[in-house]
Structures are given as C-alpha cells and as structure tokens.
Write a structure and sequence with these properties.
Number of domains: 1
Shape: globular
Largest sheet: 3 strands, antiparallel
CATH superfamily: Gcn5-related N-acetyltransferase (GNAT)
CATH architecture: 3-Layer(aba) Sandwich
Oligomer: single chain
Structural class: alpha+beta
Order of helices and strands: EHHHEEH
Radius of gyration: 16 Å
Distance between the termini: 37 Å
Helix content: 25-40%
CATH class: Alpha Beta
Number of strands: 3
Strand content: 15-25%
C-alpha cells in the first residue's frame, strides 16, 4: 500500500470516490461537489509546492478547507482521506448568538 498527498490530477478520482460512497449509501442525489469545488476546497487548483503537500503543515491556501491523501493498493487507487484543520462546536442554545456567527 502507498499513501501520498492528493494532486490536481486526482480530483476526478476523489469525486468518483464521493459519488460511489453516496451510491452505496443510497443517496447519490445528495452529492453537490464538483471537480471545481473539490479542487478549490482541497487546494488542488494548481500543483502544490512541497510544503503545501506536507500533511503536518496546517497552513491552507485561500479558499482551501482541508488536505487530502490518496491510498493505492497494488498501484490502483483504493481510497482517500480528508484532513480538516479547523473545527467548531456551539451548543444549540447559542446557535443564533454572536459566538456562532464569529466562528463562521
């Protein structure tokens, strides 16, 4: 098995993984992602630099929300993982508060 950072050429494969999972879960109509939105949100609109592909680096490009790796088994694409470097949680009673709006 090999795991490597995703590259721009992987965007169609990542979208296919998402669609295949949605089909398995019986909700393909819920997939809203496109190659363009994935490329932007995964920072794959252009070839990344070495520092940008380093999973341990938490800096993201403008519009990028996550990083992605692709897994290969016997040279075949087998899966992917997405890493989010930010998270937020607000108790339901505070959803309409300034706290919730400032987190977005």
């Amino acid at each position: 098995m090999e795991i490597r950072p995703a590259q721009p050429k992987d965007v169609p494969v990542i979208l296919d993984f998402i669609i295949q999972l949605a089909i398995f879960e019986k909700c393909p109509e819920r997939v809203l992602a496109t190659e363009a939105t994935l490329a932007k949100t995964l920072g794959l609109e252009s070839e990344p630099t070495a520092s940008e592909t380093d999973i341990s680096a938490t800096q993201l490009k403008p519009g990028q929300f996550a990083k992605c790796v692709i897994a290969y088994v016997d040279g075949n694409q087998a899966g992917f993982a997405v890493f989010f470097y930010n998270y937020s949680t607000v108790y339901p009673s505070f959803l309409s508060s300034l706290i919730d709006r400032s987190i977005d």
